[in-house]
Amino acid sequence: MVACVTGWIADFFRFAWGLIYWNARKTWFRLGSRGMRAPCQHPSDSGRAMETHCEACVHWHRPARFSRVCPLLVATPNGLRCSAHSVDVRPFWGRALGYYGGSALGVYLAVALGVFVFLRAVGYPISIVHVTWPGLWYRVPQARSAFFFEKGNRAMQAGRIREALLNFDNAYRFDPSNYAAGLVLARNYQTAQPAISDALYARLYHEHAPQRAATAQDWFRGLLARGAFEPIADLATRQILADTAASNPWMRALIFSTRQTRDTKPLQTMLEQTTPAARLWHPLLRAELQLRVQPAVVPAALLNPWPDPVPAYAHYFQVEALVARGKTFEALDLLGRLVGKLDDESALALRLDAFAQAGMTARLAEQFDALLRRPPSLALFKILSVHLIRYPDRDLTTRLAERFDRAALPLDTENAGAYFSLLCVVGANGDRARLAALAARLKTITSTPFLALNSVEAFFNHREDARRIASILPALPLPAEMTYALLERFPGPPPVASRGGSNP
Question: What is the pTM of this model?
Answer without folding.
Answer: 0.77
